[in-house]
Specification:
By secondary structure, this protein is α/β, with parallel strands linked by helices. It contains ten helices and 21 strands. The strands form four sheets. A ten-stranded mixed β-sheet has the order 12-14-13-15-16-21-20-19-17-18, with helices on both faces. It has a seven-stranded mixed barrel with strand order 1-2-10-7-4-3-11. α8 crosses α9.
């Protein structure tokens, strides 16, 4: 089997077996602690531009399901392609077994041009990232000069380019429910749409750089979806959301990146976490009810609680590290969460938030 090497910014070199595509790539190296759900995780647009390390040691054992038809939202896929730059695992299982599998993880990665590395100690690598923070990495075939590999590695610019890459090319409409929700897409997972459709809503899915005010005027509520990168690189979107808040005629909900965008639009600040929250077992507490939930998360930035204006308040807190997990307006129907109530993969403990959002949208519609 061919060999591959992962170089880190701090000079660390990790060599193992290559699978998937054989080409050099560059990206921020991050880790996810989920035990299952690699199909959903690899297609999550929040991972665009990153090299993903999976901490669970056995990957590939249940293969990959059939590709979904063009334009379909069915299946476990969260977008229409693999989003990560590269994949790192401890042990890759080539002989998969699952009734829905039609191909191996290797075949899927190869088809999509995504390189992968196995046979390294991912526990040690994860500990390094936890201790020193996420860092830039280069994944490339072994046996070539490290400097040449860096020069040849394909990277995604983690500023506005990454948001343009993951945004849909045009506005689309899904469903035919009585309540219409505008989903602002800067890398939103497909399960956000599925979650709304399952509750009888009609969804207008618009790229973040579209003219949002006319689309919001056709809607009963606005949902700001998740996405990759630094929210401060989306100044144009923050300005548009600020306009929607000033209008105040419909509820606004944010998820993950949407939590940060809503905070910035309200006048608060965000910052980069040392290594982020990426997994399906992050504990959060509702500061109003004191009830705790286990949540799915995937983000590298967070909201500064002490920067919130007086008419806003923290709503949820991460009980592991005390970071913000949600905010809400004290006066208006505006709120957001840092975790994923749509999960997939992950627990559905907080899916009730969509019900609350749609009830609020329906109540404001009647006024």
């Amino acid at each position: 089997m061919d060999r591959a090497t992962l170089q880190l910014d701090d000079g660390t070199l990790l060599e193992g077996q290559s699978f998937g595509a054989s080409r050099p790539v560059c990206g921020e190296v991050v880790f996810n602690t989920g035990m299952t759900g690699y199909v959903e995780t690899l297609t999550d647009p929040s991972y665009a531009g990153q090299i993903l390390v999976l901490t669970y040691p056995l990957v590939g054992n249940y293969g990959v399901p059939a590709p979904r038809p063009a334009g379909s939202l069915d299946g476990p896929y969260e977008s229409d392609r693999i989003q990560v730059q590269g994949l790192v695992v401890q042990h890759y299982v080539a002989d998969h077994s699952h009734h829905a599998a039609v191909r191996s993880l290797h075949d899927w990665l190869t088809e999509q041009g995504v390189p992968a590395l196995s046979g390294i100690d991912t526990r040690t690598l994860t500990r390094r990232l936890r201790e020193h923070g996420t860092q830039r990495g280069w994944l490339h075939p072994s046996g070539i000069d490290p400097a040449a590999a860096r020069a040849a590695a394909q990277a995604v610019e983690m500023h506005e380019e990454v948001f343009l890459r993951v945004a849909p090319p045009a506005t689309t409409t899904h469903g035919d429910g009585e309540l219409t929700v505008l989903l602002i897409d800067a890398g939103a997972k497909d399960n956000l749409v599925r979650s709304l459709l399952a509750r009888g809503a009609r969804v207008i899915r618009a790229p973040w750089h579209a003219d949002l005010a006319p689309l919001a005027a056709q809607s009963h509520g606005v949902l700001i979806g998740n996405g990759p990168g630094d929210p401060k690189d989306l100044g144009a979107l923050v300005a548009q959301v600020r306009g929607l808040l000033a209008d105040g005629s419909r509820p606004v909900m944010g998820v993950c990146l949407g939590n940060q965008i809503l905070a910035l639009a309200a006048g608060a600040d965000t910052y980069k976490l040392p290594y982020g929250h990426r997994g399906v077992n992050q504990p959060v507490q509702d500061l109003l009810t004191r009830r705790c939930y286990i949540t799915s998360q995937n983000h590298g930035y967070a909201v500064r609680d002490d920067s919130l204006p007086p008419d806003w308040e923290p709503w949820f807190v991460n009980t592991n590290d005390g970071t913000n997990e949600g905010i809400r307006s004290r006066l208006k129907p505006f709120f957001s969460v840092q975790f994923h109530p749509e999960a997939h993969p992950g627990p559905t403990d907080t899916a009730y938030l969509f019900d609350d959002f749609l009830r609020l949208a329906g109540a404001m519609r009647i006024r």
